[in-house]
Design brief:
2 copies of one chain form a homodimer. By secondary structure, chain A is mainly α. Helices cover 57% and strands 4% of the residues of chain A. Among the domains of chain A are: 14-83, SRF-like, CATH 3.40.1810; 91-158, no CATH class. Chain A has a two-stranded antiparallel sheet. In chain A, helix 3 (76-121) packs across helix 4. At the A-B interface, helix 1, strand 1, strand 2, helix 2 and helix 3 of A face helix 1, strand 1, strand 2, helix 2 and helix 3 of B. The structure holds a DNA duplex (17 and 17 nucleotides).
DNA sequence: ACATCTATTTATAACTC
DNA sequence: TGAGTTATAAATAGATG
């Protein structure tokens, strides 16, 4: 788990597997001993490797015997209860992994569309985008506009209008002058009335570039 | 182990211990399963906690039984061999910790003396330093001088002398103009002949400040 | 094969809700 | 209490000697 995220599967390369085995066995035994010390519980670990004739154990054979005998003394019924526990453990892990997958996909998609958006700002056409892409792009643009508006509101409160000092732009956020022109929901508004050109000359560079430079054609073919 | 490096000892706070137990048990079982998967070995872990009536195990009671029976089948003699293994494990860890301790002490000492050195450069006297401190301080100064010389050599090679462009100083290293005056081992030289003032007017700011501002008295009382 | 180093991932202590 | 978050320590994959 470093230098590269390792795939959780049998390592086919023999020497790599052995190296990993040694490192991880050491780490594992350390973990058992720590758990035992920190929480004052009885615990043991047994590992059979093809590299040693005897199993490698913690906390030594005697301790292992003690823990084992305690385990063996349990009725079968109770023992199998833990089987569920084990299954639950795996299930939980699967559920969690799925959750992560979902999040990651969403994040990827957002990054993808951000890339597309920036390309649009530097001359890319959007004729070849599919409906789904256009939809997400629109959403993304609106998100950005919302951010900008928030920022504008913030700056208005900070700096009284007559002062009009140039704001410092925090890194990572798009910069925009505080010109006091409201743009609330422009994208959605425009979606609903694509033909209605306000002609206000407000000069929002981002949005102007967005539909001036290209054959902009979100027609009824796309929005029936 | 985070937010704070935790001391490896029984956690007295009950709720903290339980929280730690849950987290670490989970981590431990994950580790066993990973080791088993990645390296294709049989392994098991058993943990008895006061928090559950049954032991928590990996890889489920049946798997544990298998591993245990394999372990039990071994003759006593061979089992106890692993006892040594366990001892060796601990011994190795102790040796390693000692090694780390030594390194850390050295590092600490160096930082300490670096601090003193900088204090000297901004007006601190050295009358109250002990022999050992003075010795180490001297060593440190020499190290720095050596670094500076290396840098000078490097810059000489990079920039031909007639060009004399001002060098960019890498962060963390003391800055010094490339004036071509050799200073090899000045500290040791001077140690051997403290009275011999070269009077070259070379203007090494660091060293000048070092013995001009204070009652500099490394006499024969200190160097017999 | 083994120890060491470094970049990165993983585990997790303390915090928050 | 327990689940989720964050900052930091620990584990470790891959490289190197």
């Amino acid at each position: 788990m470093t230098r590269k995220k390792v795939k959780l599967a049998f390592i086919t390369n023999d020497s790599a597997r052995k190296a990993t085995y040694k490192k991880r066995k050491k780490g594992l035994l350390k973990k058992v001993s720590e758990l035992s010390t920190l929480c004052g519980v009885d615990a043991c670990a047994i590992v059979y490797s093809p590299y040693e004739s005897e199993p490698e154990v913690w906390p030594g054979p005697v301790g292992v015997q003690l823990v084992i005998s305690r385990f063996k003394r349990m009725p079968e019924m109770e023992q199998s209860k833990k089987m569920v526990n084990q299954e639950g453990f795996i299930k939980h892990r699967i559920a969690k992994a799925n959750e992560q997958l979902r999040k990651q996909c969403k994040e990827n998609r957002e990054k993808e569309m951000t890339e597309v958006m920036y390309q649009c700002l530097t001359g890319r056409g959007i004729q070849d985008l599919m409906m789904a892409d256009l939809h997400d792009l629109g959403w993304l643009v609106d998100q950005n506009v919302k951010k900008i508006e928030k920022r504008i509101e913030f700056l208005k409160k900070m700096a009284p209008p007559q002062q009009a000092k140039p704001p410092t732009t925090p890194p990572g956020e798009p910069s925009m002058p505080v010109d006091g022109i409201p743009r609330t929901g422009w994208f959605n508004q425009w979606m609903n009335n694509p033909g209605q050109n306000k002609g206000s000359g407000s000069g929002n560079e981002m949005t102007m570039k967005f539909h001036e430079n290209h054959n902009f054609m979100w027609s009824s073919a796309f929005f029936p």
